[in-house]
Design a protein that fits this description.
355 residues, alpha+beta, Creatine Amidinohydrolase, six-stranded mixed beta sheet, three-stranded antiparallel beta sheet, 10 helices, binds manganese (II) ion
Length: 355
């Protein structure tokens, strides 16, 4: 936590701010350890304060050892206004990507006298490189998700609905220690597998279907994210060709991934592999995204990904090919970028399985 707070103070200096207001759940938790659903951090060079209401006073004191916990009565802006004066904060950074327009107007009105400065992505970017404790939690989240998929695999057969598979995954992961799903699961079978984000429906699995399952759990705040595609009953030559195209692209991208390349270069490795196989127009999304306290965070591995990858960044590698009326395949692993390659948090096989 000291290191994380030090990163926030670097940001203060870099942006010429006297204070930083942090209210988004992920950044708040990252910097303070606070897991409650409401609260504001005010970080200055010399002091770190967490403002909560009555419901969270005790929790804030217990969880945020590096912060002074202060309870406000009913109006957080009034409390903040007092703190800004007390600490002579003239320029305060705020999370423009998080607060609503209504909150923004409130803030401007109530914190009159202080300049409020949008910090853009800079605060979120502090979370990109994971520390050892974060990596441990992500490994655990990934491990639980693989076990959940093994548990649910016998259900992937004609007659089961997509939602039943989704339900089995969620209940296994909660039983194994996850607080819940990391996002709404995609279980897309047959024609629905051509929809990259086809969330689980009441459609029944049918003989010959592709079944794409994209899911993950939240373990002590950290997300996992993985995708496997299966074929049920019988696999056509075309299905095999599409599957192998995606698998080759996925392996090629993992081979290419390492510190020092950009997200764009990683994406390009998979994209050119799929293009060579003749399916370039069927891969309409980016290769992957950062994962951590949020399921989607920086850096992006995509044609617009200009962030240079560093050791400790956690990213997904998930190329796909989607063909309207036929179906689609996506294969996704969660990896941690290393100096000369990656640590793959997924160990489950990726050869085509016909169930
Ligand atoms: Mn993903």
């Amino acid at each position: 936590m000291e290191n994380r707070l030090a990163k926030a103070k670097d940001l203060l200096r870099r942006e010429g701010l006297d204070g930083l207001l942090v209210q988004s759940p992920a950044n708040r938790r990252y910097l303070s350890g606070f897991t409650g659903t409401a609260g504001s951090l005010l970080i200055t060079e010399g002091e770190s304060i967490i403002l909560t209401d009555f419901r969270y006073t005790r929790q804030a004191k217990e969880q945020c050892a590096l912060f002074t916990a202060t309870e406000y009565k009913s109006d957080v802006w009034e409390a903040l206004s007092g703190l800004l004066k007390e600490h002579s904060i003239k320029r305060m950074g705020f999370e423009d990507g998080f607060i609503t327009y209504r909150q923004y107007l409130d803030m401007k009105k109530r914190l009159e006298g202080a300049d409020t400065v949008p910090v853009g992505e800079s605060l979120n970017l502090l979370r990109m490189v994971k520390d050892d404790s974060e990596m441990r939690l992500m490994r655990k989240a990934a491990e639980i998700s693989e076990k959940a998929l093994e548990y649910a695999m016998p259900l992937i057969r004609p007659g089961t609905t997509e939602r039943e598979i989704s339900k089995a995954l969620v209940s296994y992961m909660i039983q194994a220690g996850c607080s819940g799903p990391a996002f709404e699961f995609i279980v897309a079978s047959g024609w629905r597998s051509a929809m990259p984000h086809g969330v689980a429906s009441d459609k029944e699995i049918e003989y010959g279907d592709f079944v794409t399952i994209d899911f993950g759990g939240k373990y002590q705040g950290y997300c996992s994210d993985m995708t496997r595609t299966f074929v049920v009953g019988r696999c056509s030559p075309k299905q095999k060709e599409v599957y192998d195209t995606v698998l080759t692209a996925q392996l090629t991208a993992i081979e290419r991934l390492r510190a020092g390349i950009t997200g764009r270069e990683a994406d390009e490795a998979a994209r050119s592999s799929i293009e060579k196989a003749g399916y370039g127009r069927c891969f309409g999304h980016g290769l992957g995204h950062g994962v951590g306290l949020k399921i989607h965070e920086a850096p992006a591995l995509s044609p617009r990904g200009d962030i240079v990858l560093k050791p400790g960044m956690a990213v997904t590698v998930e190329p796909g090919v989607y063909i309207e009326g036929f179906g689609g395949v996506r294969i996704e692993d969660l990896v941690i970028v290393k100096e000369n390659g990656v640590e793959n948090l997924n160990s489950m096989g990726k050869e085509l399985i016909v169930l």
